[in-house]
Amino acid sequence: MKTMLSIRDRARSTRATIVLPEARDERIVRAADVAAKEALARPVLIGQRDAIGSLAGQLGLNLDGVTIEEPRTSERLEAYSRLLFERRKHKDVTEAEARDLSLDPMYFGALKVAAGDGDGFVAGAATATSGVLRALIHSIGVAPGVSVVSSAFLMIVPFPGGEERAFVFADPSVMPNPDPVELAAIAIAAATTYRGLTGDEPRVAMLSFSTRGSASHPDIDKVVEATERARKLRPDLKIDGEMQADAAIMPGVASKKAPDSEVAGRANVLVFPDLDAANIGYKLVERLAGAKACGPLIQGLARPASDLSRGCSVDDVVDVIAMTAAQAGAEGAVGEGA
Fold first, then answer.
1. What confidence tens digit (pLDDT) does each residue in 278-310 have?
2. 149-192 per-position pLDDT tens digit
3. How many domains does one find in the chain?
4. What is the rounded radius of gyration, in angstroms, for the C-alpha atoms of the chain?
5. Same-domain pairing of 210 and 307
6. pTM exceeds 0.85 for this model
7. Which range marks the domain in which residue 238 is found?
8. Angle CA(202)–CA(205)–CA(211) in degrees, nearest 5?
9. CATH number of the structural domain spanning residue 257
10. What is the C-alpha separation between 237 and 224, in angstroms, rounded?
11. What is the dihedral sign for C-alpha 186, 192, 196, 199?
């Protein structure tokens, strides 16, 4: 796919250090080996050195270009423990508790990125989203000016005639029912995600079951208010709504429903009104349209991070490593008001 090839090229130019804390999972070890051999990133596997070496041997991998770091023996453990304590002491976390948490590969990996010793973080193959997010928020924290952490999928969709189009769908896995303020933040973050992955200009459609007042309902009011807020916060971005999905992506429909919109018919960022719609939407497009769903990527953190699906394949992990590396090399502000 052209989009993923382009993202991999962007990742190669960045050569970011990507931290992988689930080194007991065969898929993660295989993906780290591929990412290193294809120069997509500088992978760092977090875990017990002997166990990782044994697993690699069983898989027939030499892991050339892959760094292995064991929390208990790392010279950076005390620095990471101190960093976590400083960030969590307001929640009554003690120094001893911070050190114990820092020994956990998930926290150790997140702290490595937070400390600037890594450029991005990829986990979730063997860990629930809640566990991944907890470590990321406690360790890396949210970006300046950002009020909410959310998620997005990169959707690579085949169109008739062999055309391929890339979209960002948000938020399919974190925020169940965002209010207007949160939905505006998700929209801005999704625009940043799209630009970071593709290098192209984002055009954001705030989706609803109404286009430009064609229906009336409190759910529509939420989307309208979120659109207005997002535009005020980031007047430099192309954001429009409320808008039905067909009006967002089909020029012929857009010409009838929203003829004066600079987004309608050309949207590449689709912001759904709630998690139900976003999760259902991405899965339908993936399964019925034969789209490639890449992610989810975590939005709103101070450093790039991704939360894998627990059903991911090795190829999925390699793609997410590349996307996280591409984001790590992207220029531009991540804050809502930037």
1. 999 999 999 999 999 998 899 999 999 999 988
2. 999 999 999 987 778 999 999 999 999 999 999 999 999 999 99
3. 2
4. 20
5. no
6. yes
7. 150-288
8. 155
9. 3.40.50.10750
10. 16
11. positive
